[in-house]
Specification:
mainly alpha, 11 helices
């Protein structure tokens, strides 16, 4: 198996065992640098925002590519570097722990604590959510971040190694920082949002496909999940969150979407999103089911990424067979010329 494939599997296993480091996380460092540069460089301009995005995504991606390139021919260090990068960019275990805490508060009947906890992983205003609203927020963030924080990065890791892992994670982090629609970032964050949409497109479809295929593990139907994905995904404002949330809704037999409130006070913004799925609204037990489905999707994506990386590493370029040159058709064999003996006089 290739160093890249081994590194991906080791990185996924490390994230599953340890989760994110509590202190000195490289993604947190990146966010701090991005925030500082945003305060200095901000202009209400797409061009400036594009340069900001290109710098913050391009420099770490180029550095990861250079290190990976330098380790070419050294499989053990290369696998270790890939594993470290994979562990750094993945967030599946931390997401699972955060949503598990929401679930515990709901089971204990502590709705205020559940609202506070779910606000750590969603951008909506959670202060007035009821139990069903908190459960819905938890299921939706599990679905979306299974794609964003795990599968999309693994897809790019399989295709482009550590550089692909870093490119997706930095782009997705910038989208969370400046890609949302607001007065300040409407133009400045345009490039970050569009880049994240592009890089997230293949991984979101892989996530939706895996959730659909694994629906029977949660007493769901692949046919129903595929039907909800096909019918409802386009109604979501995000081209990538739509397929994922729709597939999860169909696989779990619940209904997602509806009214959301972002911000508070004068900055409050209400969205009425398209409904996804035909079932009832999520309840507390559905958080458990969503987390189990997400873990299985993560495992399936890890195996698929490792297999893809191994296949790309072992594939040999196809050599086109050329027809051999034909020798010219031989003509008639010339008869030997006989020498005439000279006559004797």
């Amino acid at each position: 198996m290739s160093a890249r494939a081994i590194g991906i599997l080791l990185g996924v296993a490390t994230d599953r065992l340890l989760g994110d480091p509590q202190r000195h996380h490289p993604v947190a460092w990146f966010g701090a640098v991005g925030n500082g540069l945003e305060r200095t460089a901000w202009r209400d301009s797409r061009a400036v925002g594009t340069a900001y995005t290109a710098l913050l995504v391009g420099v770490p991606t180029a550095a990861a590519w250079a290190v990976d390139r330098a380790l070419h021919g050294h499989p053990v260090p290369r696998a270790a570097f890939t594993a470290l990068t994979t562990w750094t960019v993945l967030g599946g275990t931390s997401l699972d722990r955060e949503v598990a805490a929401v679930e515990r508060h709901l089971v204990a009947g502590d709705l205020p604590a559940a609202r506070t906890q779910v606000a750590r992983v969603v951008g909506r205003d959670t202060r007035f959510l009821d139990e069903a609203g908190v459960a819905r927020a938890g299921v939706e963030t599990v679905a979306e971040n299974t794609s964003d924080a795990v599968v999309c990065s693994l897809v790019w890791g399989a295709l482009a190694g550590p550089a692909g892992l870093v490119a997706h994670r930095t782009a997705n982090t910038l989208d969370a920082m400046v890609g949302h629609r607001c007065a300040r970032h409407g133009r400045f964050g345009w490039a970050s949002a569009r880049l994240d949409d592009v890089l997230g497109l293949p991984g979101a479809r892989v996530t939706a496909a895996l959730a659909t295929a694994l629906a029977p593990t949660e007493a769901g139907s692949p046919r129903e999940a595929a039907a909800v994905w096909r019918r409802d995904a386009s109604g979501h404002p995000s081209p990538n969150a739509g397929p994922v949330e729709a597939a999860f809704a169909g696989a779990l037999g619940v209904r997602l979407g509806g009214t959301l409130v972002y911000g508070t006070g004068d900055d409050a913004r209400t969205e009425h999103r398209h409904l996804l799925g035909d079932g009832p609204p999520p309840a507390t037990p559905d958080l458990v089911r969503a987390r189990r489905l997400a873990r299985r999707v993560d495992a399936g994506a890890a195996l698929l990424a490792a297999a893809t990386a191994w296949g790309l590493a072992t594939a040999r370029p196809i050599r086109h067979r050329t027809s051999p040159r034909r020798s010219p058709r031989p003509g008639p064999t010339p008869r030997p010329r006989l020498r005439r003996r000279p006559r004797r006089g």
